[in-house]
Structure to design on (169 residues):
């Protein structure tokens, strides 16, 4: 294992503690002492601090964490040493594999030159594309008369009096 990187002055001030179980049996080790004696303890203690504080922590550590000295592992029959991950297809990720030019339309605000790969797709000019939402005409508006009737009904009907009335903005 390579020497771990510590931020700040932790390499000189951090202490690893071990309690033997006897009175006065608390042992403190500096980072240098731990690196000489048992260097994998630094990584194991860092991971141990990130796990949930319960009885399963010890089992999880033993079952799932394997620390090797150096950059190579000993599981050659199961896992090769260094593998390059296969690159992801960006078209598949974005859902463009089933892209059908007949069923799609390109909408744009200003007339511009289209790239050559988009030439067979129909085009539409949409001048309202950059128009802010507050400037657009509202399509789903309620008449204020409906709110007034609802308010009067809530005040008059005894079943609705127990609910809190919120002021409308």
């Amino acid at each position: 294992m390579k020497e771990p990187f510590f931020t700040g002055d932790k390499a000189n001030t951090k202490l690893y503690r071990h309690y033997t179980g006897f009175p006065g049996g608390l042992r403190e080790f500096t980072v240098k002492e731990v690196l000489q004696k048992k260097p994998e303890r630094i990584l194991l203690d860092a991971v141990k601090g990130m796990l949930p504080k319960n009885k399963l922590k010890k089992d999880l550590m033993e079952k799932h964490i394997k620390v090797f000295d150096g950059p190579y592992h000993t599981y050659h029959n199961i896992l090769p040493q260094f593998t390059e991950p296969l690159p992801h297809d960006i078209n598949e990720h974005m859902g463009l594999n089933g892209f059908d030019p007949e069923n799609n339309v390109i909408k744009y605000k200003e007339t511009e030159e289209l790239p050559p790969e988009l030439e067979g797709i129909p085009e539409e000019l949409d001048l309202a594309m950059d128009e802010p939402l507050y400037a657009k005409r509202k399509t789903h508006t309620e008449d204020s008369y409906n709110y007034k009737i609802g308010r009067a009904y809530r005040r008059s009907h005894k079943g609705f009096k127990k609910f809190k009335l919120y002021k409308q903005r």
